[in-house]
Structure formats: C-alpha cells, structure tokens
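Standup, Tuesday
Yesterday: got the pipeline producing structure tokens again.
Today: sanity-check two examples.
Blockers: none.

Example 1:
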Amino acid sequence: MVGFKATDVPPTATVKFLGAGTAACIADLITFPLDTAKVRLQIQGENQGLVRTAANAQYRGVLGTILTMVRTEGPRSLYNGLVAGLQRQMSFASVRIGLYDSVKQFYTKGSGHAGIGSRLLAGSTTGALAVAVAQPTDVVKVRFQAQVRAGSGRRYQSTVEAYKTIAREEGIRGLWKGTSPNVARNAIVNCAELVTYDLIKDTLLKANLMTDDLPCHFTSAFGAGFCTTVIASPVDVVKTRYMNSALGQYRSAGHCALTMLRKEGLQAFYKGFMPSFLRLGSWNVVMFVTYEQLKRALMAAYGSREAPF
C-alpha cells in the first residue's frame, strides 16, 4: 500500500480538525484557478439585458476563461482572493469536515452503525455551523475572484482593505451577505460531499472491492465530487451572484434567483458547471487523499511519542 497505514487507534477530534483544515488549504492551492474561472463564468451575464448571444460572452468554457484572464490580466489574476480563500478553508473545512465524525457519533449516540439519516443530519449541521464561522472570508474571496485585475476599476487592493471597506460601506451585515444561500449550499454540499464519500468508501470496503488505501480514497472522492456538483450547482450560482452584487442590486437571495431565471433562463443555474466539476472533483480527490494521510501521519507521530521505546 502507498502512504501511511491505518492505525489501530482512531484519530482524535483535534487531529481531524487540524488535518481537515490543512488538507483543504493544500487542495485550494492546487485547484484555485478552476474556482476563479467558475466564479467568472457564474457572474457573467448578470448585468446584461434579455437579448444576449454567445458572441458577446467574454468567457467561453473553462480553458477559454483561464486563457482570457491570463492574457488580459496576467497569471496572478487566477489566484485573486487566495489569501481569503485559505483563511476560509482553515476555518471552514476544519469545522464542516473535521467535526463531521464527532457530530455523526453524537446523532447515533455512540453507536457503531450510522444510518443515512444520521449522516445527512451530521453533514447539514457541520455545513451550517461552518458558514456561521467563515462567511466573511467567503464574501471577500468571491469579491476578489470576481473583480478584474487590470485597470483602475478594482474594488479592493488587499484582503485587509476588503474586510474594512465592506464593513465601512455596507456595515457588518455586508460581511455576512449571502449567508442564507450559503447555509443552504453548504448543507447540500456537505451532505452530498461527505455523506457520498462516506457511503462509497463504506460500500467498497464492505464488499471487499478495495482496501482502505489511496485507490479507495481516490474513487470515493471523485464520486463525491461529481454528485456534489450536480446537486449543489444551482445554489452555488445564486450564492456567488448575490455575494458579489452591489448594494441594492438584489433584495434577497430569492430575488437574485428569480432575476436570473427571468433574464437568463434555467441554464443560468448551471453556469460554470464544468469548472465546478473539474474543481470539485479535483479538490475532493486532493483534499480527501491528503486528509486521510494526514490523519494517519499525525496519529503515527502521536503514537511514537507516547511509546518512545
């Protein structure tokens, strides 16, 4: 088997908490350009009228978006908002992924068997709790990814300035803009992502199709990424549009969704689907594989420290 072997001692809540945040940051570093391309595709067309053709689209497809950004704004534009993104993952993923097993055990009252209902409840709980902790970092990340780097029309020059400017111009509520769609999105994402990963992995292991190592983690993570993208894409587009909107552009997340439907049709809710899938698929693979290995490495280090001889 490649990588660290599973230990007899299950990882502690602290190991899961720190491991999840670290693994998510590593995954973000690798897949961030895809996330930025997704945001640009999702917000494209929100300020245009009813008549719209493919000819006046600034970005076309994942690769086209990335190449356009590199050509017009430089390669660094692909990492707009990275600092806020890493801040988000360290606080966000630590809660929604790192606490998932602990919350699942709480709902099952310590039982070794966890049904689909307990897993869904645990995913929804940690997803919503993570938003409560990390929402301001998500708002700043989306604003940075959406702004064009070239020219003098940039809304924010630095991450710290973005936090201060949003709080000053829009109030504290501005930093929590889009909380409702984000709670909905992350309850859905967490359920689709973690529960699907959990179920696929359990099925593979119980059927003796794979052992608890890298191929199993890779397969489970890839499946989780696809299911998550299909289920969560509409809410993700609305969240991105609403969080990036100017003050007063939309009355609520519901108004944002209705405006999209009226002006751009149902297909608008799946804008940026391919970069979303590429990003979530690759992000899930990197994150879950790294997370599983980090848990084992940390527990192995902990075990060796407890038993020096």
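Example 2:
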Amino acid sequence: MEEFNNSRASEFVLLGLTDSPELQIFFFVTFSIFYVMTMLGNCLILLTVLFTPQLHSPMYFLLSNLSLIDMCLSSFATPKMIMDFFAKRKTISFEGCISQIFFLHLFTGTEIVLLISMSFDRYIAICKPLHYSIIMSQRVCTGLVVTSWTVGFLHTMSQLAFTLYLPFCGPNVIDSFFCDLPLVIQLACIDIYVLGIFMISTSGVIALISFLLLLTSYIIVLVTIKGHSSKGSSKALSTCTAHFIVVLMFFGPCIFIYVWPFTNFLMDKILSVFYTIFTPLLNPLIYTLRNQEVKTAVKKRLSNRYLSLGKTTPKYSMQ
C-alpha cells in the first residue's frame, strides 16, 4: 500500500462533455449564460427575502437558504467546465479532484436535508396551522438549517474517508467534466468493485428513502388541502407543486446515478449536467413564477432599484 501511495497520480484528465469544437463553442456560450442567470436569479431571491419584511417567515427563510446552496452547487464545477472548453488538455490536480467530491457531497447532502425541512414546514403550515408559529419558531428554523449543513458535512466526510486512502497509480482519465465518486474510485489500483458499489449505493439509497419520505409528506398535504377553502387550497397547492417539482428535479438524477453506479456513464454525464447546472437555474424560476408573494416582492425591489437609479442620474440643462 505504501508503494502505491508513493506513486499516486498527481492529476487527473477530464474528458469533458464533447470533443467537437463546434459543440464546445455552443456549450461555452450556453452554460456561461445559464451560470450567470443562476447566480443572478438565486442572489435576487436571497436579497429579496433578506430585505423584504413581509417575507420574513419560516418558508422564505428556508427558501433563501436553498438559493444559497444552489449557488454553491452551481459553482463547485461549472466555472472550471466553462474554462476547460478552450483548454487543449483538461486536467485537475488530485487535491482539486478531492475538493470537488467534497463540495459536491456537502452541497447535495445539505440540500437533501433542507428540502425535507421545507416539506416539514409545509406539512405543519397546512396540517397544523394553529400550532405553526409555535412549532416553526426562529430557533427551530435556524436549527433545521444548521442540521442540514451538519448532515451534509458528515455525509461528505464519510465518502472522503473511503476515497482518500485508495491508491491511484494507474489510469487517470475521467470521462466527465468534474470528479465524482463513481468515476474516481474506478481508477484505483486495487479491486474495490464490491466495496465501491456498497459505498456509492448507500448515497443512492439515502436519496431514494428521502425522496419517498418527501413524496409521502406531499401526498398527506394534498389530501389535507381538499378540506380547505378554494382560495387557500389554490395557494397551498401552488406552493406544494413548486416544492415537489424542485424535489423531483433534484432527486431524480441523484437516485439514478448513485443507486445504479457503473452502468451508463453517458447517461450519468447528462444527468450530472442537469442537477449541477439546470436545477439550480430552474429553482428561482419555479419559485418566482409560481409564488405570487415572491414575484410581487421581486418586482417591487426591482422597480425601487430602477427609481433610485433614475433619481441619482445627473440631469443636464441647455444653457
């Protein structure tokens, strides 16, 4: 083992999404636009919730934290992928590769728990409305966010504890645009197929169980909504639908990649693009388009910003 570690690969080669120069230019432009829109959209939601007193409620507090995680999830690999489109040789150091695995599992693990917290918030608001302010206090909301990050950290450390001690002394080519556990551990110099399947599938099973719990909670909420007034029912249904779309977009690719690892790397690459680039972009769109309160607050903030800029613009008169 010492001999293996001494000759450990110092870098990995990333094959990226495509070898076609035309497609690389197209992807560079497309993903650059998506990345900027993702950062601006989520930042807008974060600032809107922060500076709008009407949105200082548990649901929007959790939503603003989701926007923060989405910005992080979109940034751990996307900027490097965009820059690599024009690189002749796409490489990443061993330390950089391990860092990408660390941040990927930190942010995805955190988002899983946060989505469960948001589901819990909607369940209490709709099924136990009289106890909502007591149960979902500021202290509880802060505790849910701290718990989300703690679970994410523990999850990623459990994955790295397995990966760091693997000997990498042979092939160093990764058929993706970033380092992920199923791809990296295949490059180890020892046979880890059974152990690797167990470790990676554990992440998939956790994601699958979390998704089933969320699905169950939303079914209960939808059944409860039937007994509400038409106006309240419509608003609650819109909110829950937005939440569930986010859940489906996030958990779908994760479950496919980690429940059945080492199966279809082309599909894994496509799904990786989806949950690292498209999902963080669609989250703010879904919440702003389907949530009237957020939409109104965003419009008000943008209009106030526009008016303030107009007032500060110097005016010149003809002499």
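Quick observation on example 2: The CA atoms of residues 71 and 194 lie 35 Å apart. The first helix runs from residue 2 to 6.
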